[in-house]
TrEMBL record:
Pfam families: RabGAP-TBC. This is TBC1 domain family member 19. Signal peptide: none annotated. PROSITE patterns: TBC_RABGAP. InterPro entries: Rab-GAP-TBC_dom, Rab-GAP_TBC_sf, TBC1D19. It comes from Nephila pilipes (Giant wood spider). Residues 295-512 form the Rab-GAP TBC domain.
């Protein structure tokens, strides 16, 4: 009896509700874009969920803590002698709606769709539809694994060794102060850097396209490094996409600048915090995303990001983290040295992050052991690297999470240390950010948010928005992407002040895209245009753009996306 009623409720209450939610959203969107009502109705009526997706999401949700607790409550209700059979269904509906479970379940479904838009389609897209990009990615993976193998052979170190029990105990005792470890890392070097990766991007070429097919290239063609014919958005399309940041806007990042009127700044912040608290009470991920489009108060950022990313720490998360920690204690991996080396080279030497050195070690060591990470390869063009277990023919994923860190990888975690003190929450937030956004920044793919598309978008956007600068670069053999690539790959982490990085990442989460990074990169070039037009070579340009730590993200984005973006050379609004 309970199973029948429950399955009925499950399929109707959650998915029908979600269907209507998306219908309303679609209706709103098309009305906003001034489509005719007939066209709207036709488009809206096509929102149908494939049964396979419904089954998949149901099965996944049944593994969650939310589902388990709901089931316990429903069972208690069924066993309640005061509830009659006739009233049972209504009582169950009431319980699901009023106890907050309905919204929690909707959030879970929303997270699945946000992570994998393919769920809406009957036919699942291939990992990488373009064969030449797939081949380039495979070749790149071979290069990385070869580099790791060479390092292992040169240093005489195995990829993995089980620690003796005494060493495990010692390592566990030092867990919270790993930064004080006196390790000789001089022989270790990063497997690759953003600069190395740029060389790979430059060499990706479509076999179908030659210069013959492009008789009238624009000025950017001469200095553009990315030769892949991917479709990227025009500046006009970008402005439509980020319309909340264009024109006259009431954005927190513009209203609480140091030189703003202090009273109005306080008022604006107070109003945003008050509204933000209501958003958190509503516990709706999509609403939190919309809220962040106008700025995210620092005091609410931790909770808003958790809601948007669907991170609600429960017992399972804590157990998982504890298990991963024990895996770190048990085995010493060659990858660990690369993690230590990267943190030494980056965060340890950074005034903003050196205090978080120990925390970064913990998070990244745990991350390397997280085998559940390999599921993100279903959406990625990449393939997890494999290693052969000594003395057998068995192959395993190495490192266990399938991700080989590059120079600067720890910068994906560092800014988060300012938001989350608890390592477990910090870890799961980082993990979500990585599997949704960051992994695309160091893998070759034709995805609109992949590094190839972003790099190409940077070059085409710079040409469109700043043709004078583009022409000047072309005439002087200057390649701006050589500078911007590290900004893009690291999502500006380590390049800007932490509060500014977090404001940029607010935008990534609010709009669910990394394309905003490109707009900022072009905006910074535009901002420094008067000085750049005096530079005569690549080295000078690199010096001019070496320190961008004073850049204010929201004013630059606003300046770029509003009509006035050509007049923002004054500088005081944008940099300190």
């Amino acid at each position: 009896m309970i199973a029948i009623i429950y399955m009925y409720l499950w399929s109707h209450l959650i998915f029908d509700d979600l269907d209507s939610f998306y219908r309303n959203l679609t209706q709103y969107y098309f009305e906003k874009k001034n489509y005719s009502s007939r066209k709207v109705n036709k488009m809206v009526s096509t929102v149908v969920w494939p049964q396979s997706s419904v089954n998949f999401m149901s099965a996944e949700i049944e593994k969650t803590e939310v589902y388990r607790k709901l089931l316990i409550n429903l069972q208690d209700l069924v066993m309640d002698p005061s509830v009659s059979c006739d009233a049972l269904e209504d009582q169950m509906r009431k319980l699901i709606s009023e106890s907050g479970y309905k919204q929690k379940l909707r959030n879970l479904v929303y997270q699945f769709i946000a992570k994998d838009p393919n769920l809406k389609n009957e036919i699942q897209q291939r990992k990488e539809p373009l064969e030449y990009i797939q081949k380039a990615q495979i070749n790149w993976e071979h290069r990385i694994t070869k580099s790791l193998n060479n390092m292992s052979n040169e240093l005489g170190l195995v990829f993995s060794r089980k620690r003796p029990v005494s060493e495990q105990i010692e390592f566990e005792a030092k867990w919270s102060e790993l930064g004080s470890e006196d390790m000789d890392l001089s022989r270790f070097r990063p497997v690759y850097s953003p600069k190395d990766f740029l060389e790979v991007l430059i060499n990706v070429k479509s076999p179908n396209i030659g210069l013959v097919m492009n008789p009238d290239p624009g000025p950017s063609t001469y200095w553009s490094l990315i030769k892949v014919p991917l479709k990227v958005k025009s500046f006009h399309q970008m402005r439509l996409q980020f319309e909340e940041m264009a024109g006259y806007i009431d954005h927190l990042g513009l209203n609480i600048l140091p030189f703003s009127n202090s009273d109005s700044s306080k008022k604006c912040l107070k109003e945003r915090v008050s509204l933000g608290k209501h958003v958190l009470e509503a516990n709706q991920a999509s609403l939190a995303r919309e809220f962040c489009k106008k700025g995210c108060p620092a005091t609410l950022r931790a909770d808003l990001w958790s809601l948007i990313l669907g991170v609600d720490i429960c017992g399972a998360h804590k157990l998982n983290f504890k298990h991963l920690k024990s895996c770190v204690f048990q085995h010493d991996l060659l990858i660990d040295k690369l993690i230590f080396k990267d943190i030494h080279l980056t965060a340890s030497n950074d005034d903003q992050y050196f205090v978080f050195e120990d925390l970064l070690y913990q998070i990244l060591l745990v991350f390397s052991r997280d085998t559940s990470m390999t599921s993100h390869f279903d959406l990625s063009s990449a393939n997890p690297p494999k290693a052969v277990v000594r003395g057998t023919h068995t192959t395993v994923t190495y490192p266990p999470n399938g991700v080989i860190p590059f120079h600067g990888f720890s910068m994906y975690v560092a800014p988060l240390c300012y938001i989350y003190e608890d390592p477990i929450t910090l870890y799961h937030i980082f993990r979500e950010l990585y599997v949704r956004y960051f992994f695309r920044l160091h893998n070759l793919s034709s995805h609109p948010q992949g590094i190839l598309s972003l790099a190409l978008s940077f070059e085409t956007l710079l040409d469109e928005v700043e043709p004078q600068l583009a022409y000047y670069f072309s005439a002087h053999d200057i390649y701006p992407l050589k500078i911007a690539i590290k900004w893009i790959i690291k999502a500006f982490s380590g390049c800007l002040a932490t509060d500014q990085i977090l404001q940029l990442w607010d935008c990534i989460l609010a709009y669910d895209t990394t394309e905003i990074i490109v707009i900022l990169a072009v905006g910074i070039m535009s901002l420094r245009k008067p000085i750049l037009l005096q530079a005569e070579n690549q080295a000078t340009v690199e010096n001019i753009l070496a320190d961008i730590s004073g850049v204010k993200v929201i004013p630059v984005l606003h300046g770029m996306l509003s009509n006035a973006h050509h007049h923002h050379h004054g500088g005081s609004t944008f940099s300190r």
